[in-house]
Amino acid sequence: MMRLNFQRHCYQLLRRKAMCGLFVLIFPLIFPCLFTAFTHASPSTFSEWNVPKPRHLRLLRSALQRERLTGEQSDLWAPLADQGWRPYLGSVNAPSLPQKSEGYLQVFLDGGLNQQRMGICDAVAVAKILNATLVIPHLEVNPVWQDSSSFMDIFDVDHFMNVLKDEIPIIKELPDEFSWSTREYYATAIRATRIKRAPVHASANWYLENVLPVLQSNGIAAISPFSHRLSFDNLPSEIQQLRCKVNFKALVFVPHIRALGDALVHRLRYPPGHSRASSTDYLRETTNQNGKQNPQKFVVLHLRFDKDMAAHSACDFGGGKAEKLALAKYRQTIWQGRVINSQFTDKELRSQGRCPLTPEEVGLLLAALGFDNNTRLYLASHKVYGGEARISTLRKIFPLMEDKKSLASSAERVHIKGKASLLAAVDYYVGMHSDIFVSASPGNMHNALVGHRTFENMKTIRPNMVLLGQLFLNKNISWSQFRQAMVEGHQNRQGQLRLRKPKQSIYTYPAPDCMCHA
After folding, report:
1. Alpha-carbon torsion 254, 257, 263, 267, what sign?
2. Helix ranges restricted to H, 289-358
3. Can you give 225-254 as a three-state secondary structure string?
4. Is 256 helix (H, G, I), strand (E, B) or coil?
5. Which residues 6+ apart lie within 8 Å of 233 measured at CB?
6. Nearest CA to 230 among 248, 211, 214?
7. Structure pTM?
8. φ, ψ for residue 176 (rounded to 5)?
9. Residues 291-320: pLDDT tens digits?
10. What tens digit of pLDDT does each residue of 16-63 get?
C-alpha cells in the first residue's frame, strides 16, 4: 500500500511539472506581444528599456539653472554679416542646346534623400559632358528606410525641367523603342548598355572614353550605381556652375512638401495660444492668422543619432551592457563586424571627435553657447536611437522643443507618413527657413544644408567635435569653464564662408566655383 501511494505521489508530481512545462511553452504563443522583445530583435529593444542616465550630470544641473543674458542673446540671433560673396551660376545669356543628342542617359541612385540629391546634380553634369538626353533619375529603395518614393514624389519635376531647359534635354520617360531599359532588365544579366564600374569621382574624360561610345552604339547608356561618380576637381567652370544651378535652383520640393513646411515654419514663428496640431487647414492658417504677433526666431537642430550612426561609431553611449551587445550585434549583422572604429577605445574615439553627439551633449553645447530655455528648437530627425528616453534630457534643457508630430496633425502628415525621404524633405525645407541651423554630427543632411545655407549666406553652427569630445571626457570641468571653451571654440564656426579645397564637395563648399567675390 505504501509503495502504491508513493508511486501515485510521484506520478502526480511529474504530471504537475509536465503541465507547467507545457504552459511555459504555449504561453508565448497565446500572448506573443509580451515576448517579442526577447526574440531576434531583443538586444535593440531591450537596450531602449533601460533609460540611460545623464552622463554629464554636473554640467546638466548648471545648464538647467542657467540665466538669460540679453546682450549675448542678441549676438546669437544676429544674421550673418555680409561676407562679400554672391551666388554666381554663369553667364546671364541663356546657353544654347546642341542640335543633336548622342542618346539617352539613365542613372540609378541609391542612398538617402541628400545623397540622391547630389547624384541628381552629377547626372545633369554628366549628361552635359556627354551631350546626352537625361531621363529623370531613378531613385532606388533605401535598404534601411525602405522608402520607395520616386523623383516626382519628392521634387517638382516640371520646375526642374524648366530651369534646365536651356542646359540639357530632359525627358520623364523613355520612348517606346527603349522601354525595355529598366532596373529589372539590368538586374537579370550582364547588359551591353549598362555601365557598372564607373569609378568613384570619375573624371570628365573617363565618361567621354567609356560611356560616350556606348551611347553612340546603342542610343542609350544606364549607369548603376551612380553615387559619388563625378570628380569635384579639374572640370570646366560651366560644369561646376551647372551642378550648383541644379542643386540650389532646379531642385525644389513638390507643392505639398512646401505647403507643410511653410505651415511648420509659421507655427514656429507664431506659436498658437490654443492646443497644437488641431487644425487641418494649414494653408489658410499660414496666410491668415499672423495678426499683430511679432515673429519669433527659431533654431533647427538636425540630431543625427539613429541606430546606424550609433553602431558604426563604436562609441559608448551610457546604455550599459545591453546597449553595447545590441550595437555589437547590429555591427555584425550589417557590416560583418568590419568597422574601423571598433579597434579604438571609447576614450580614444572621443578625444578624436569621432563620436556622434547624444541629445544630452548637443543640448549642453547649445546651452553653453547662450541659448536659453525660451529658445524655440525644431528637432529635425527621422528616428533617434533610444527614442524619447534619449531625447528627454534635451527636452528638459529646451522645453519649447518641437518636431513634425508636435506641430502638425496626423491628417496633415498623412502624405509623408512612413516615407523617410519625404520626412527628410520637410526637415530640409524647415532647415532652410530657420534663423540658425545646427547639425549634431557630420553627414549628408549636414553637408547639404551647410552648403545651401553658405550659398544663401545664412547662419549655421558647426559643432567642434574634437573640442567637445575632449571636454566631455573631463568629468571635473565646471560650467563656467565649459561655457567659455564652447564660446571661444565656436566663434569661427557659425557660417563663416570657407573656400573649397581639392577633393572637397562643391555641394558643401560652393565657393569659389559657384560664388564670386563682390
Report:
1. negative
2. 307-313, 320-335, 346-351
3. CCCCCCCCCCCCHHHHHHHHHHHHHHCCEC
4. helix
5. 502, 503
6. 211
7. 0.86
8. -55, -35
9. 567 899 999 999 888 888 899 899 999 888
10. 544 544 444 444 444 444 443 333 333 344 344 466 789 999 999 999
